[in-house]
Amino acid sequence: MAVDVQGQRHNRKALILYGSETGNSQDVAEELGRMAERLHFITRVSEMDLVEINALLDYTVVLFAVSTTGQGEFPQNAKKFWKSLLRKRLPPDCLSHVAFTTFGLGDSSYPQFNFAARKLHKRLEQLGAKEVYPRGEADEQHDQGIDGTFLSWSADIRKHLLSLYPLPDGVTPIPQEVLLPPKLILALQEKVPGPPQVSTGSQIHQANQIHHPAVSPQPAINDSSGQSPGVQSKPETPEPSKQAANQIKMERTPSRSIYDFPIPVEEEPVICNQLREKFDGEPHDDPDSTFPPSKAIVLSNSFNVLMLENKRMTPENHWQDVRQLTFGLSDEEAYDPGDVINIMPKNFPEDVQTLIDLMDWNKVADIPVTFVASPPDFYLADNLLSKAPGLFPTPNSTLRDLLIHNLDITAIPKRYFFELIAHNTDDPMHKERLLEFTNPALSDEFYDYTSRPRRGILEVLQDFPSVKLPWQQATQFFPVIRPRKFSISSGGTLKTSSTPGMIKFQLLVAIVKYKTVLKKVRQGLCSRYLAAMPKNTPLKVTLTDGSLGFEATKAYKPLILIGPGTGVAPCRALIWERASEALFDTKIATEETILFYGGRNKRADYFYAHEWKFHHLALTHVFTAFSRDQKEKIYVQDIIRREKKEVWRMIAKGGIIVVCGSSGKMPKAVREAILWVMLEEGGVEKFPKGREDVEAELKKMEKRKHYVQETW
Amino acid sequence: MAPSVTIDNDSDFTPIASFPTKASSYNARTLLLAPPSISSHEESLRNVLASHDRAVTDLQMLDRLSAGLVTLPDSTYDLILILTDADGTRTESAQLLGRDVFGRMVQALKAGGKLEAQDGSFGQNATEHRESILAGLVLESGGMVKPDYSASEAVPLRLRRKDKSVVSNAGPAVATATVSLNGKRKSVDMVTSKPAGVGFVDFSDDFGDPMITGEDDDDELIDEDTLLTEEDLNRPVNIPPECAPRVGKRRRACKDCTCGLAEKIAAEDETTRANADAQLQTLKLGADDLAEVDFTVQGKVGSCGNCSLGDAFRCDGCPYIGMPAFKPGEEVRLLNNDVQL
């Protein structure tokens, strides 16, 4: 464990691993990382999936920050690591020299509160790792949210680490007032861009591929400013199973129909060749447009799509704006009901210009930049990250490009942001106020200034005009834009397009727009992007496989769909997909399908009401609940109970139950309603031990994918 | 010990509760594994399905199982049936039945469950026979059966041993490791060589492999649901004393608040906004109006004098709340409720 650093032996190495879905655990991990650095640990902060289990043995202490997501699951970027840890053949004391603890982020309104962190902790102990400090658990439901627990837990563990691993004589922790050296630095490219300068390695070639690139290595740093060469970041891992999945999908999903259907056929562009052409450089953007330019970020496993239609589904006078977006893509792609499209929104050029003006960055904003790692002797070479995780620059990226395509300049700032910018102002009054916001004792003020009104980073900077940030550290100040996920709402013959070589997919998107105490109306980043998107805009998206299971898409199984609000999207995909099977064989009759749909007002948000009447979709029943159409609130779970006989009949026939929509209270209430129905109708005959037996049966159904939840 | 039960075998109704202590034939669950060619011959699929009770029959694609895209539930099926290819042979399915697939199928079988082919030919070719035996099945008429061991489940043998020796100065060697092998626990010697004076753990078999390879799919995983015992689940959340909600601190609403607190807070904010707007109107800063904010004029200032400094400094009743910071004397324009500076 001893390492040479600057010619000296160094025994203090800390590894902070995180599993994060929305970034909260990542923030916690980074905070712990800074704490460890200040205690003179050589610190590495990384998402769990980028680390191999045996790496744990190289560190003095390992801290885990893990969120629990979905139904007690691990976040996406920790799943591989977790699976690897579960291997039966790992010897029981393979981690006996690992000192660790965990901090879990969860929500106590879920029954599987912090399950991921608890399971992780238990498994690590099973493998011999030693808990060096009691684990912590944060609860969203707490008064102060995650901070409520984290602030004091981290203060305590800091004291503990200092006493367990005391600093040598004469060495004191780096004080809070001293800013830690920056790790993610930009530099201007010295050379004049001639033929495409590879500032981001081999990724230009990737942009040319719309088939599935098997491997996308992270770029080699083309360092022109004379820093140490050969600084590589970890290659992204290939996903062989994804290739296989897509191949299989293509076999299973035919995209042509011999039947005529009452689907309004829009006039479609003949620009389909755009989908197959290389997609870097400057596409045909209107220079006068205020919409973000279409320059594509470089992202592995992504493919080009074209926005064909942007149709509002709720009445103009209704407060909620819900859109149906139709996209075209190459017919070499394929998708299934339940699959999810990930869209990376962009910032609007005028906002970016506002920021550039505010920070006096105009002179450097349009020169291509490269990413420089901090001095290699501070970290070990294989731990160096030159770019923030999740950052996928466009080819030949300039600072402006980063601000438009990659950095979330309108995100709500975290406490650490205030700490950083406090060091970048000369105005003592501003500095004092900024530092007050970082003070945990004044957390109400921080909350009132940022979260409550949903104030963004750009707005904060406008409030503190004395703050001038160095452009070289832009990627440290602004979080990375995260993709937004949308369940596909089309299937079966809805995929067909009259343009040769193209198929379609549709999304149902609720535009996020609301007022707070701030004068300017709040808009979600992706909402604003999609709402303003003009027809025929090309963009790059990725696809995540859904988890509805194979059988739900097959017409031979009866299906109970519960999809209130935008949850109707994957339900609609399933309905159309199943119906298309019958098209190819007149002898196939689609088994019964029933749909439970919930909204607020029948006149405003009863989406697809007219489609459900189509005979070929074979919907036996559609049961609706509109919560605000009458005095008392009626929800889908109430209707499920009302229709207990019908529901039970379908379940007894071996029906599959699919629940889609927003996570939180709805899926819980629906499951409870189903449980109630089973108990009521099944009675003592089927469930002698009553509720206990029904619970057991439901769990079995869940394992067999006969009770499936797709919630967000 | 299991309660006696009368099962109503009426054709409209199939019992779905199962009692794990008895392998009762009327609760038998079947898994059909279809080779991909069948998916384009729906008719063959229909024929097979017609002869099985839909309520207790599951269908999976063999190629998806082979690719690791589906997970089967443990110990669930009494019968797993490999369907014949569209062309009537078993060439396709035979190719997809790798060692890992055998492992998964066996795990999904109940003790005493059977693995068969639709055409009755399972286990008859040498490869299938060998793989089945290695996976822990025994030959019985027409198919292979998972024996009912009361000890551990059958485990496929891992015969790969990489030659790398990874040395880590992590501490004393692990002398033996236990490996479950067809129901018997077997000790495997883990230490292959020992440099003088330094102990090490030989991870050559496990950690020599890069973590993320296709081989991981072969590995059996423990059931993570067994990790948390009743005790773990009921253990109270560790809340350090400093974190207990303090009296006097303001409550915030939950994300999907149903008690009405979220509405209450939003209403407060709305009132604040409305009051500020009203005050701005009296200061003649209505929409489309241009007005110069002159702080020397009586009435154009909030009580603290910090109006121009931004929300971070403004006091509660400030008419300029919700607007960005500005310089006194600077024109403050409000166009369509959007502040232009």
Automatic annotation (TrEMBL), chain A:
EC number: 1.18.1.-
Binding site for NADP(+): 566, 627-628, 633-637
Keywords for this protein: Cytoplasm, FAD, Flavoprotein, FMN, Mitochondrion, NADP, Oxidoreductase
Binding site for FMN: 20-25, 67-70, 140
Ranges of residues in domain Flavodoxin-like: 14-158
A GO term for molecular function: FMN binding
Subcellular locations according to the entry: Cytoplasm; Mitochondrion
Residue ranges, compositional bias (Polar residues): 197-209, 219-235
Region (Disordered) residue spans: 193-256
Function comment: NADPH-dependent reductase which is a central component of the cytosolic iron-sulfur (Fe-S) protein assembly (CIA) machinery. Transfers electrons from NADPH via its FAD and FMN prosthetic groups to the [2Fe-2S] cluster of DRE2, another key component of the CIA machinery. In turn, this reduced cluster provides electrons for assembly of cytosolic iron-sulfur cluster proteins. Positively controls H(2)O(2)-induced cell death.
HAMAP family xref list: NDOR1
PANTHER family noted in UniProt: NADPH-DEPENDENT DIFLAVIN OXIDOREDUCTASE 1, NITRIC OXIDE SYNTHASE-RELATED
Official protein name in the record: NADPH-dependent diflavin oxidoreductase 1
Species whose genome carries this gene: Lachnellula subtilissima
TrEMBL record, chain B:
Residue ranges of every copy of the Anamorsin C-terminal domain listed in the record: 239-334
Residue window of motif Cx2C motif 1: 304-307
Region Fe-S binding site B: start-end pairs: 304-318
UniProt keyword annotations, A-Z: 2Fe-2S, 4Fe-4S, Cytoplasm, Iron, Iron-sulfur, Metal-binding, Mitochondrion
Domain Fe-S cluster assembly protein Dre2 N-terminal span(s) in chain numbering: 29-158
Cofactor(s) this protein cannot do without: [2Fe-2S] cluster; [4Fe-4S] cluster
Motif mapping: Cx2C motif 2: 315-318
Protein name: Fe-S cluster assembly protein
Organism: Lachnellula subtilissima
